[in-house]
User: Fold this.
Amino acid sequence: MPIYEGRTLEEEEFNKLDDSIKQQFEDKSAIVQEQIMNTISEIKLIEKQSEKKIQEWQSNISLLTVNVHINYIKSKYKRNKKISQFLDNIKKDIMKNVPLFLEPQTNANTQIQPQVAPAGPHREPPKPWLNYRVNLFVDNSKLEGAPVIMDSNYTFQNIFGKLEYENFMGSFKTDYTMLKSGLLQKANGGYIIFQAEDLLANPLCYENLKRVLRIKEISIDNTLEQRAAMVMVSLKPEPIPLDLKVILIGNANIYHTLLNMDPDFRKLFKIKVEFADDAPRSDENILRLARFFHSFCEKEGLPHLDKNAVARMIEYASRLANDKTKLSTKFNDLSQVIAEAATWAVLSHSKVVTEDFINKAIDEKIQRVKKYDERYSEMIKDNTLLISTSGSEVGQINGLTVMSIGDYSFGKPAKITVNTFTGKSGIINIEREVELSGSSHSKGVLILSGYIGELFAQDIPLSLSASICFEQLYNGVDGDSASSTELYALLSSLSEVPINQSIAVTGSVNQKGEIQPIGGVNEKIEGFYNVCKMRGLDGSHGALIPIQNVKNLNLSDEVVDSVKNGLFHIYAVSTIEEGIEVLTGVPAGKRDKTGNFPAGSVNYLAYEKLRRYANISKKS
Assistant:
């Protein structure tokens, strides 16, 4: 501004001055403006230099501050190149954004003028410190040893991890802190256990599992529906190296199906382990089972078992194993009994579970599912099903069968009758003729022909027709456990020696007349025992079983007491000759040196009838 006589002039006053004076001012103005421009340039240069000096100072201070922390962490992971590189990148990023960290924060008392929000999403000012937040992806800090992971949720995201999103002003956004680990990431470096049936129920999971096992790395993919109307801002995480063991648990059918249908299965799952349903009944295994009972009660907060209850559970485990020399490893079935027994103990205000509570739990379990068992018993009681438990009959015998309804099995007697007559039809299996016989049962009947032929048809032709029938059995029969029973009835029909109806029989037989073991021996004996008990035990009743099944006996206390008191008998035999003598009270008879059977023996009488049949057939 022009200064005249010691004071500044306004524009109107300046215009009133003489032209010569104005010219002087204008000439000096150009000089002043040039000096001002030079000064401003110098000021800007000084500011730039000072700003650079400040930045250098800030960088030095920042570098010193950051190095203290970065170098400490790098020293702990100096052998890991990826971590060292990652930390170096963090340091570079911090140094590049130091000014942003130093921006003054808005004072809480500062008045902020309201602004109209934009119509759409707007970009927030950068916050570089958010890049250094920690996402604890997997936490193994409290883990001892390798991780072992089991889970029941077999969804894709739960197995392989997921990337979460949040809604920000009408669009989905995410960042690395929203990466969530899956079961495979948690099990990395250790083991993961899958139930094969549940895993295969989701084919996408199974196929992706094979893929990550082949390439030995796992990545988290964006599985959110791409058809979504909202815009998504996503990211592609770096794959993680995968080093773990995968264990599939399933039954034999699943294993063989995968082995035959999936070529990758054999390559990826190379080791097969089969778990037995039982274990030897040794002192060591008994102690282990007792420890399982204890730990189960501890875990479930149940009263503990006393020594008699433990002993009863050991017996029950042998019963489940169907072998008194073994213990069942079906821990779920055992724990169910303990849980119910503990409930009865609590209801009775008992501090421990006694043997009586174990027996009550087992009995109650049977009572809940024995509807069909009781129905059969009622039909036998009112003679709807004709079962004889007294007297003697020719060509008639009580066979022992097992019926299974779901997880409950019970034994019941079945009347088997045999008629013999002249002819050349051989042994006719009536069940087979009407397609009610399974292959195993049909095989057992055909074995009878081999036995009869070798025993009696060495010097005469076998001219025989015989019909074998399971009376009042309309839903089919399978298994060969009645083959010895059928043979006894056949010999009785041929010899016309009656069979004691108070004894029921089970056991298979081979062509040489050797008795072979069968399954379900306890259920079969107890089933016939209950029928005899219903009609009144008189000391004549019993069951005939293969000698090999003695080790499988694990009968109820009631049956054991009846055997001890002579009210019920169990006969173990190894040959047909032994069995027929028990059933008839008549010697079976063996050929002497001349090839003849002893007179009056069962085999002698049967041979004589077959010889008559042969003579009749020869004459006709």
Q: What stands out?
A: The first strand starts at residue 3 and ends at 4. DSSP finds 22 helices and 24 strands in the chain. The longest helix spans residues 19-76.
